[in-house]
């Protein structure tokens, strides 16, 4: 199914919703603003439980009704924290997605010593429970059952196969992908056909596994969660083949990391590490144009990610309640067409990249 029909619209929650001052013009496609919970797994820093809960409640209060999580985020910590808050709200009122590919055990390990490929140390402040990479059919079913318990819910709407890509598995990624194709892919397709879940797909940080999946005769996914590869800072490769092919097959794209790990939202991280000099320079150039046009760089980043016809939603993460309000405001801010023209003229976005209409 098209998850564009599954995901709730965020338009009614925006400051510029119809019937309010500064309402969107008919040409603006607001898309869906979701909430990505990776930061709630203590990514980069240890977050107090109270702050994590307040952030999820702030998302709810701002009208967000799509929440994405994963066992990987803090070895189940993000799922536990999200589940505690969402359990207070009607289950039919929100859409929930999580991921498979890693099973969380009761055994203990040193979180800082985990081999996470290019993402080393990402969740060193998370729970110390041992994580096992396993994309087999049995592990997929166990992962789903464990996630349901941690999330305190009776069902999942979307399930993503997590991180079957080069950044985590290096030269072994194709073998891992094949294990997922014959295991997790088929299990999730069966669960969808049985009505246990509504949709499935891959959740990765690289384009190549998604292109490979689109070329399969079966099984066929409903959507992809692509993190960091369709942003203001990095979108050329996705534009070339992936997004047109996905649109042609009615496979929707959920954009993860629209702020490129935070560098487009005032932070210092890019690709989950400290941003290199050339990225800092590029962000400074974009920010200078945004300042010239009197808009926020977060607004530009978020709306750019949602402007492509294949995009169904964007799911920035947050660890402070105030950030949620900023995201909602960013989605509603009017951006003049001249800003996008200037970005193109300075080669800061691809010439053929779709941009929001004003």
Any overview of this molecule?
The structure is a single chain. The protein has 11 helices and 13 strands. It has 358 residues and is of the alpha/beta class. The longest helix is centred in the middle third of the chain and has 21 residues, at 173-193. The protein is globular.
Radius of gyration (Å): 19 Å
First CA to last CA: what distance? 30 Å
Structural class: alpha/beta
Point out poorly predicted stretches.
11-30
Strand content: 15-25%
- SSE pattern, N- to C-terminal: EEHEHEEEHEHHEHEHEEEHHEHH
For the biggest β-sheet, the strand order reads 1-13-10-9-8-7-4-3-2
Strand tally is: 13
- The proportion of residues forming helix, as a percent range, comes to 25-40%
- Mean pLDDT over the residues: 91
For the biggest sheet, the summary is:
9 strands, parallel
Count of DSSP helices?
A: 11
Shape designation: globular
Any descriptors?
single chain; 358 residues; alpha/beta; nine-stranded parallel beta sheet; two-stranded antiparallel sheet; 11 helices; 37% helix; globular
Helices and strands in order, then pairings?
Elements: E1 32-33, E2 35-36, H1 49-61, E3 66-68, H2 77-86, E4 95-100, E5 102-108, E6 129-133, H3 137-151, E7 158-162, H4 166-169, H5 173-193, E8 199-204, H6 208-214, E9 223-227, H7 236-248, E10 252-256, E11 269-270, E12 273-274, H8 277-293, H9 297-307, E13 311-315, H10 321-332, H11 337-345
Parallel strand pairs: 1-13, 2-3, 3-4, 4-7, 7-8, 8-9, 9-10, 10-13
Antiparallel strand pairs: 5-6, 11-12
Helix pairs in contact: 1-2, 1-10, 3-5, 8-11, 9-10
